[in-house]
Amino acid sequence: MTLGYPEPKGSFDLREMISIYLKAKGIIASPSSIMVVSGGIQALQFISLGLLQRGSAIFHEIPSYLQSLHVFQSAGMNLFGIRMDHDGIVTEGIGKLKRQHNGALLYTIPNFHNPTGILMKETRRKALLAACINERLPVIEDDVYGDLWFDEKPPAPLKAKDDQGLVLYIGSMSKTLGPGLRIGWIAGPEPVINRLADIKMQTDYGSSALSQYAAAECLSSGFYSQYIEDIRTALKNRRDFTIGLLNRYFKGIATWDTPAGGFYIWLKLKKTLSMQKLFKLALREKILLNPGNIYDRNGHSHLRLSYSYASFPQLEKGLARLADIIQCMD
Amino acid sequence: MTLGYPEPKGSFDLREMISIYLKAKGIIASPSSIMVVSGGIQALQFISLGLLQRGSAIFHEIPSYLQSLHVFQSAGMNLFGIRMDHDGIVTEGIGKLKRQHNGALLYTIPNFHNPTGILMKETRRKALLAACINERLPVIEDDVYGDLWFDEKPPAPLKAKDDQGLVLYIGSMSKTLGPGLRIGWIAGPEPVINRLADIKMQTDYGSSALSQYAAAECLSSGFYSQYIEDIRTALKNRRDFTIGLLNRYFKGIATWDTPAGGFYIWLKLKKTLSMQKLFKLALREKILLNPGNIYDRNGHSHLRLSYSYASFPQLEKGLARLADIIQCMD
Questions:
Q1: pTM above 0.80, yes or no
Q2: Partner-chain residue, chosen from A177, A179, A283, that has the shortest CB–CB distance to B179
Q3: What ipTM did this prediction achieve?
Q4: In Å, how far are A105, A165, B64, B318 from B303, measured between CA atoms?
Q5: Of A61, B21, B164, B238, which residue is the least packed, with the fewest Cβ within 10 Å?
Q6: pLDDT per position as a tens digit, B217-252
């Protein structure tokens, strides 16, 4: 472990471990086509700075993760949402959209999507990759939740089937080991990664050498894979408990899908109501709805629930009260 | 609540609420001398970009928060550490250091310092401010832990006594309401805040309007002050439990101070050992020591413990095993 000037792409040891880790997902990426970053958001910042021009058209699922969209917006990109169904992003209109707006890139979260929790089905992945190859539309695959599956592994990442070098794949340890380590990665074609590493060196001397060492150790020692098993079990219990609460308190007032992994349940309220008012009323009952997470441009009928953090009694108390509040609103 | 183009300094409503919130700490700052940021780290990035030149000398406590130092390093600054004692940063040598290196700025965490947990005493605050005024050395006061006191409020912030406009004050809701909201602030002289707002507009269109709305509501509704009381109680219980464990398991092998607030206990091991080896051995026992948090350039004798996250059984099991590991190392 040295604390000297780090390599542009991140420590070789860590990239080697990430390469092995990705292989288990079906992704073939040599250490030289992997760059270490501080997390998923930093990955998007480098991509925006290094690969995109201001005013480029970015396609994304709607709804999508607000913080990710925020990075693109901050870099002056134009955003175009594509709707989702239960199988993931709807691929039919992609070609037309690409030609209409000269699309530069499609951003997707195939595994346990934020905020909807949707897992993109295998057939949909194939259709999406085919559409993007057909249109030469590069893809950012944000897979920070991919390890958080409950009963079965998700289908292979888009990147695993990408023989054209069209997909930039983003992963992170922040959703599993916690945000403190600040270690994520981008895997993609080597020239693209080289370009991103240049950008990285202009803006940031790289992730902490100690964090990189820790991340490499976690992967090589087997700690990560053991730990992630515990997380899966705990998260699944939390999901089951929360779905039980929804069945008890939200049967008449909302619908939802049971997520197969990740942190989130996307609650569709049966009536339309003012989210601002709901936020205020919930706050009076000491329930903090994070409006950054209930972002749905097309209506005010959804809430994102996270079952990953609050204690079981807090979940029960909070959801019971929330149901009361919603029922009392006109 | 509008979702349109945000004001450069952040939403006026939120800045007005922050202004009132800061007044209770003795800080007089009008909304126009406050800028909303996404968190403490972003505040440091704007300051580095907007106010400092590459190669500037930055003074900081040693040890200090690694991620903060990383921002300065990334911006090409030269870092100089100043040692601490139990009362906070040692002020005697500041004048000499300033003249020697043409110091541009001093960065300090007076309240529940990361990683040591030290609370800067009132007399030390006076001495520090006097030294900095004497040397015309601007100060960044990082106060993201200031609300997390247990038995009594910390002494007034440096900023409250700053009649020369020498202090830039940073606060955040990330340590209290959680990192998801991504709302923090900088308070300082209006021309400086205007300059920082220019920089902000060049790099980032500002924090999410929804998050800003939520933060303003949390402050104005009283939710924040109620919530923070609960957090204080819970954290204090955690501190007491953890100190109890240290008394049980670490009596012979380490010393520590009992923190009066915040998240951290700074454990000084009685013997010097290889942190790399300790990290590996702990990992085998499924204990993740975050080496990004045990950064102590001058030796390998300290560990930062956080009592804010792990469950009580996890804390007990982890600390008991850690003590065993340390005792068995040569």
A1: yes
A2: A179
A3: 0.71
A4: 44, 44, 13, 13
A5: B164
A6: 999 998 899 889 989 999 999 999 999 999 999 999
